[in-house]
């Protein structure tokens, strides 16, 4: 389950007409699943771009990305989508639930059209129980609070037992109590499942609850620290 992430001089540019906007510059980092990591930085510093590349939602323009021994930088589209499906559970600020599907169906949605060996429905129900939503299985997302919707997204991210949970501002739309519940849940689930956890956040208090804090500024790593957990 534990698969380290290695980024070696990773860069990302976006083309805007004739000009090239370099958003990530020579990022060299290693992540192991035994520690929880927060990526912090001001708006526009490149946090989401970096997390999207790690989550294989986007690709770097230069540099290397290894997942364990596998060179993700060299993979073709089909292989990338398999790695994304098998190893990455992504959580977004806006939850990104499908509004016409029930809570249970949303959690099962990543597995639709795919052959998987375990009992999907049983696992989805048990995950929803684990995140405190067992009485809401058949509701629509619109019938839930923001914090509950994010807990559905957490269960969905874990349905395929990913090696990594990647969360981009997972508490950004929530009040502080609901945000703390989500963060505590993510840290507990990380311990229970042995997966790695990387969170992007603006919230320094939240970042202090993680074992490692990486500060990114203008697409570069400014500091990379490990602190005692607050
Ligand atoms: N698809 C894109 N096309 C062009 N430029 C982009 C694209 N995505 C991001 N950028 C640019 O890359 C830079 C970094 O964006 P990114 O979303 O990674 O920042 P961020 O640190 O996550 O900011 P925020 O805290 O506001 O979410 C910004 O200047 C942004 O405009
Ligand atoms: Mg962002």
Question: Short summary of the structure?
Answer:
The chain contains 7 helices and 10 strands. It is α/β, with parallel strands linked by helices and 230 residues long. It has one domain: 3-Layer(aba) Sandwich (Rossmann fold), CATH 3.40.50.
Description:
With 230 residues, this protein is an alpha/beta fold. It has one domain (5-226): P-loop containing nucleotide triphosphate hydrolases (Rossmann fold, 3-Layer(aba) Sandwich). It contains seven helices and ten strands. The strands form two sheets. The protein has a six-stranded mixed beta sheet, with helices on both faces. A four-stranded antiparallel beta sheet has the order 2-1-4-5, covered by helices on one side. Helix 4 (120-130) packs across helix 5 (146-158) and helix 5 (146-158) packs parallel to helix 6. The protein is globular, with a radius of gyration of 17 Å. The relative contact order is 0.20. Residues 47-48 line the site of magnesium ion (MG).
What is bound: which ligands? adenosine-5'-triphosphate, magnesium ion
Mean pLDDT, to the nearest integer, reads 94
Order of helices and strands: EEEHEEHEHHHEHEHEE
Task: Give the tally of structural domains.
Answer: 1
- Determine Rg (CA atoms, Å): 17 Å
User: Widest sheet: strand order?
Assistant: 6-7-8-3-9-10
Relevant CATH superfamily: P-loop containing nucleotide triphosphate hydrolases
